[in-house]
Amino acid sequence: INTNAQYYVAGVEGMDEISHIDLKSVAAPREVIAKLYSPESKVVKTSMPLPDPSFEREDYTFLFFSNSKTTSSIFQNSVVHSGEDAIELRFSNYEGSWSYQNEKVHPGDVAGFRQNITYGISLSDIPQLYFWYNVEKSSAYIAINYTLLTIGSTPRFHTVYLNELNGDGDWHRYDIPPQVLNSWRKGGGRVTAVEIRMVAKEEGSEGTIYIDDLGYSFMPFNSTDRTRWSIDNFYTFYGNAERGKWRLDLIMADGSDYRVEKSIPIEVDIAADLDIYKIIHPSNIKEGETVNFTVYVKNDGKKSVNESTPINITLTIYQEGGEHIKMKKSINGLNIGEEKKIEFSWMASYGDEKYNGEWKIIGRVNENGRIPESNMNNNWYPESIKVEAKPDLHIDAQDILFYPSHPRENDTINISIIIHNVGHANTTATIRIFEKRIDEERFVLINPDVIEKFIENKSWAKVTYLWSANAGIYNIMVEVSSEEEKNTHDNVVVKDIKIGGEEDFTPPEIEGVGITPETQGMGNPVNISATIMDEYTTIDKAMVYISNGTDEISGCMNRIGTTNLYYFTTSFNKIGYYKVVIKAWDTATVPNMAESGEYRFRIIYEGIETNPPIIRAVSIDPPNARQVIGGKMNISAYIDDESGIKEAVLIIGRGGEEETHDMKGGGNKIYYFDSKYD
Question: Residue 222, SS3?
Fold first, then answer.
């Protein structure tokens, strides 16, 4: 057995249970017992020192019966719970060759077995007691007596009738009732044997029971190997367990009660209990509004979480089978009884129409269980909200088309406009069209009559307007509006048209591509911008393409006023690295296209440290980096990071091949690898 100190945390699943004990000895002991002591040296749990609880050897169990014709107690191997053998206790009326030879079971007839215990265990320390049974034939007039034989006090026994046990022909466990055990523990004396006997209460009572695996006791590996013993489910340190130094004693005894003992120190710690108990948010929420959520977290446990330990809190907003937004932040430490609040924000969306604007919200703390806790059931808190639908008009550069795209002077130009209602409420859109030469300052309305168009939710409508002008370059501004819109930031588009001039065969120019910020928290905006121009005509549209290797999105870039600056803003709900490419088309008769290079940005969990580790002071020993064949080479480095080092890997290239090795160490932040080469 490993006698090194063991560490447990009370009430923390996976860290609170002595689930299995394996013991291996040189000799074959008669009995094995485990005793667990509290920090006050009080016995908290023991096992029963039964020499052969699974009946694998006949020499440790004494069988007895009162009448060879009508009662029997035998080892048998046809019906067993575990191992190779079990005990059969049977009452059956005897029928002879002649009627005068017939004999019935008599009241008081018995059949049973006993196992003597060399290591006498105190009655006050007895553990949970049970046996496994299989009833083949039941009777209301046959009793099963479970008896503890003792010295220093009277024997303790408990009776259960055969018909009170499950008689379905399968194996079941019978536990001595807790109230019975508690009364036994109050007496003095020591247990010297365990006996189970079947007793007939009426004449002619017939019944059969198989008994196996007495508990609670160590089990030998098998009938021939008694050097290995094991026991399961020994003890659980619940949340109220005392913090401090416990001790587990393992004792082996032979037939003369010669004992060998080993003690294992056990450190039992207490744990925090992180609880999300409240989420505050507005009651009336309309689509397109920024909603602030305040999540309250408290430490209800017996141990503080220190300041150097980040506690992750997530807020998930979702519709079943639909959109799923997960935001993550962290706080540093939480003392006993302390509470903190964390703010999250979300731009309200109506979502899938079939949910009528209803969203579910779940706040979680320590979701991955990296901080030991005594209770993980209060680590989440559910809420729900309802978002009121609004219309949302949208146009961009690709929704406005000029025909012809590069007209001659005084040509009639068809201005085609597609207006989208991307919202979840119907609306009537008002459309206004303005124009000005690029060297003029003020726009002039060119449609004196009001243009209105009814647009249902999640639909679009098209309007056209005929216009002509003298040669030159013009800014055409289209503005759409309606009442109570979700978002008016995408209601205006300025697009240029060149009237007259030579044919254009040159693509646009894309310069000054920028991404702000290059590292952004999940759910927060990323802005992609560029300067885009065309020398001979004008820009028809600019598109941005964003990919993370598996998914790709694209969008039409917005123009800032009448400048050559274009931008696209979006957010992402999946962490990782993203690639960006911009493409632009001009308004030549046959459009020309330009494409930018690739640019990258990264999406992370907000508040999570993103600086890479520091590697410096790399050294090779011998210092000249030369060594004889078979001599040892040592490569070391100073490696540090504010959140710790998970692993350090060394890559060695030799003969066109690479070797990868895990570096050892970490003490004083020095990592190394050494090896010999031939």
Answer: coil
Task: State which amino acid sits at residue 193.
Answer: A
pTM for this structure?
Answer: 0.59
Architecture of domain 274-388: Sandwich (2.60)
CATH topology of domain 509-604: Immunoglobulin-like (2.60.40)
Long-range interactions of 73-82: CB distance < 8 A, separation 24+: 73/111, 73/112, 73/113, 76/210, 79/134, 79/136, 79/210, 80/210, 80/212, 81/132, 81/134, 81/171, 81/212, 81/213, 82/54, 82/212, 82/213
- What are the per-10-residue average pLDDT scores of the chain (678 residues)? 82 91 91 96 95 94 97 97 96 90 95 94 95 97 97 95 96 97 92 97 97 96 88 92 94 86 94 96 91 97 92 95 91 95 94 92 94 92 95 95 94 96 93 95 91 94 95 96 89 96 95 95 93 96 95 95 96 92 97 96 78 88 83 90 85 86 86 87
Tokens of 500: 């007259």
* Fold entry, domain 58-217: Jelly Rolls (2.60.120)
Contact call for residues 634 and 623 (beta carbons, < 8 A): no
> What stretch(es) of the chain map to CATH 2.60.40.10?
274-388, 393-499
Q: Hey, which bits of 423-575 come out as E strands?
A: 427-437, 444-445, 451-455, 459-467, 472-481, 492-499, 509-516, 519-521, 525-533, 539-547, 552-556, 558-559, 565-571
- The CA-atom distances, in angstroms, between 326 and each of 574, 606, 610 are 9, 11, 19
Q: Which CATH class is domain 393-499?
A: mainly beta
